Amino acid sequence: MSALSSPPRLAFVASDRPEAMEARTRLAALHGDLPEEAADVVVALGGDGFMLEVLHRNLATRRPIYGMNRGSVGFLMNDYGEADLALRIAAAEQAVIHPLSMIALDASGAEHRALAINDVSLLRETRQTAKLRILIDGRPRLEELICDGVLVSTPAGSTAYNLSAHGPIIPIDAQVLALTPISAFRPRRWRGALLSHKARVTFEVLEPDKRPVSAVADNVEVRGVVEVEVVEDRAIALTMLFDAGRSLEERVLAEQFSV
Q1: Within the chain, where are the H helices?
Q2: Which residues contact residue 5 at a Cβ distance below 8 angstroms, ignoring those fewer than 6 apart?
Q3: Environment class of residue 59 by beta-carbon count within 10 Å: exposed (0-12), middle (13-18) or buried (19+)?
Q4: Taking Cα atoms as reference points, which of 144, 199, 214, 150 lies closest to residue 179?
Q5: C-alpha–C-alpha distance, residues 134 and 201, integer Å
Q6: CA 32 to CA 107: how far, in whole Å?
């Protein structure tokens, strides 16, 4: 449950969608308009993509984020409502998530670092399929995966790209990561793996000149990679707030029974 002060001090931020910007104007007039650095909670108005953007922006401050859906996809957002907003936020349930840390080496030997709240994915850059070697904690587990790509997903991201790639939905409090192939050609029957959240996943790109691969950590892309390491960063804890009875844990559970 939330341990926020009541009423919490709020800052409102909006995506560039007209309905989000209009909602920000109305809410700021009703509840005041503090800068993010002076607020207890940041209220994000938009869709799931904007929620990820705001979470990334608050990586250093770890300030709780309460989202309201004013976008197209709102799995990570609460329903929009202007009445009793401070009370809703004060009573909200917390979901604490940890991002993935990506270290990618490109063909020139340069190192690129980024954090991913949803997933880190490797994707083919051309018509040629990617050819990858997968190591877990330094030990080779799959000598050759021929595919369109592969991804490592957090529990929070398991209902996003991971689910579209037929990966498993993971309960938000499960200490596991999903390793999911994207359109695997060989081995055709490999459907991925569930890994301990402590696992260090290394991808080696085979034939990188012929089969170039990019690595993407949420919205950060590195092209022409030759090796990518992914590990959960437990030192960073991000907090999302959800209306009582509509926790992220409940949403993930309900998603598994949707038909």
Answers
A1: 18-31, 48-57, 85-90, 161-164, 248-255
A2: 40, 90
A3: middle
A4: 150
A5: 7
A6: 50
Domains in the chain, start-ordered, CATH in brackets? 10-97+237-255 (3.40.50.10330), 100-232 (2.60.200.30)
CA-to-CA distance for 151 and 107, rounded, in angstroms?
A: 20
Per-residue model confidence as pLDDT tens digits over 71-114:
877 788 999 998 889 899 999 999 999 999 999 999 999 999 99
Provide, rounded to the nearest whole percent, the portion of the chain with pLDDT above 70. Answer: 97
Rounded-to-integer distance, Cα 12 and Cα 67, Å: 10
Q: Provide the terminal-to-terminal Cα distance of the chain, rounded to the nearest Å.
A: 30
- Residues annotated catalytic, as ranges: 48
pLDDT tens figures, 108-158: 999 999 999 999 999 999 999 999 999 999 999 999 999 999 999 999 899
pLDDT of residue 73: 72
